[in-house]
Amino acid sequence: MEDFEHVYTYDKGLKFDQVKRILFGKGQSDQVGNQLKEIKKKNTIIVTDPNVYKFGLLAKIESSLSEAGIKYEVYDRISNEPTMENIVNAVEFARSNGNFDSVVAVGGGSVLDTSKMVASMVTNSGEPKEYLTPIEDKFKNPGLPKILIPTTGGTGSEVSNMSVVIEKESMYKTWAASSNLLADTAIVDPVLNVSAPPRTTAASGMDALAHNVEGLISKEANPISDGIATKASSLIFRNLRTAFNSPDNIEARSAMSLSAMLGGMVITFPWVAGPSVLGHCLGEAFGPKYGAIHGVAVGMSLPYILDYNISAAYNKIGTLARIFNIPHKGESARAVASKIAPVIIQLLEDLEMPTTLKQINFPKTDIEKFGEYIFSTRQKLYDLPRFNPRRLTLENSIQLIRNMYDGTLEN
């Protein structure tokens, strides 16, 4: 089989904004107080959710802050999905309660995304919805310093420059993107993931895989994003089943925490992954609309968008054969690429996750309407012609949704 090396030329250069500091490893969440003390902050708001309290994950954070002499107030009214109501209420609380000089977020992607908006909205005027302009950065003033501490290994939000939100009217996802949303410090402590239920572990792990695999096939991929995404995809494929079946396995949890963080880095390249390739375009539309959590939606989309893109990106898709340890000696690149989607479907089944739209009760009568929406509206928001390898037409958009409903692969 041919070598899958890619030749890169960059007339316009590369831009790679990242968080200022990353603390990674077992027990690193104990350092949150010292991190705030180092930058002379004295009064922080902790943004979290009720489950973090339920599993006792906040105790170490509070102890660290107290020992460092940092005053804090806890805001724990964040739901599992990043709703506009979440953000509006949290911003109102932060603006009206005390003189917070920093933000600490402890939780999953919804908590982290909300906290990033809180930190930025305290120092910028107006309403959060005014800043949900995916292409344009509307933040004028730097936000409050923020420390982001994930408790699930999936979104990579702790190192990304995005905040995702579900629009109340349409029930579709949109987002703000800005270097203003980058954390000052990301603390990734795999111990905090141990209490995550298997269903959460599976969904967040597939979200991380989708970020990295979509990053690999994006037309805006580059040598740095490729290196990160390749390593992360390998870690996920070798460790997600173990983390799902043996939650206390700290080695698997560490691998998943690391790969999720790496996926967040891939997203942070301007439009390399996540919101630039077809899988997230689909999943972030039908997920909130039809009641599938984010990781389930983008994870289920992944094999079908790889199958869809084979004709335009079989070389890049084929690189996953090496990453996933799929035998491929002597086969053509296209033949190897066709092996990837079934392997991901098997992974979904092993994680007890749905593999078709039918399984999440997506109405069959909505196939054409949803396909038309993806073609006529959604792909413009994601600028798919620029970033996704294969272009969408109305006909193949509807056929793709039909394939996802029936569980059909074309290659």
Give an overview of the whole structure:
The longest helix is centred in the last third of the chain and has 30 residues. This protein has two domains: 173 residues, Rossmann fold (3-Layer(aba) Sandwich), CATH 3.40.50.1970; 209 residues, Dehydroquinate synthase-like - alpha domain (Dehydroquinate synthase-like, alpha domain). Helix 6 packs across helix 10. Helix content is 49%, strand content 9%. The protein is α/β, with parallel strands linked by helices and 411 residues long. The strands form two sheets. Strands 1-8-5-4-2-3 form a six-stranded parallel sheet, sandwiched between helices. It is globular. The N terminus is likely disordered. The protein contains 15 helices and eight strands. The two termini are 18 Å apart.
What does this entry show, briefly?
The protein is of the alpha/beta class and 411 residues long. The chain is built from 15 helices and 8 strands. Strands 1-8-5-4-2-3 form a 6-stranded parallel sheet, with helices on both faces. The chain has a two-stranded antiparallel ribbon with strand order 6-7.
